[in-house]
Amino acid sequence: MHMPRRRRIEMTERRRCETAYSDLELLARLIECEAGGEGTDGMKAVAGVVMNRVRIQRGEYARIGRGSLRNIVFQKGQFQCVNDFAAQSIYNMSPTGIHYEIAEWAFAGNRLTDLGEALWFFNPFSPSCPGNFPGRVGRFAARIGRHCFYIPTAAYDET
Question: Do 121 and 112 contact (CB within 8 A), yes or no?
Fold first, then answer.
């Protein structure tokens, strides 16, 4: 089966990103892709969520992530920017100094005060954020820019 040239290039870039990029590069690309238009606080909030998933000691992310940024980033269905078919993805990002600085800030354990241990974020494309997301495992913590952020409830521990 013949694969179109563009698709071959995308698949090659995905493999290279999964294996060759440093954790710093990978997080910087994810920050740019998921929150590049959200300002410094929006990018810090997304970086904090990613690192919270890496560091959590309970629930789904502890089992799947096992302390690995790569396991968290490439967990199927978690980040729109890791989708093979997304027009904007980590595979076509060119992070700049600010993205690397925020990635380093998050790796150092820093978090925005309002978010604490937030594990999820999404853009509801509406002026308000639902009280819970996803389902009953997350409780609304804060809205930063267009994204709503959620902290785990006790139900998350059962995931």
Answer: no
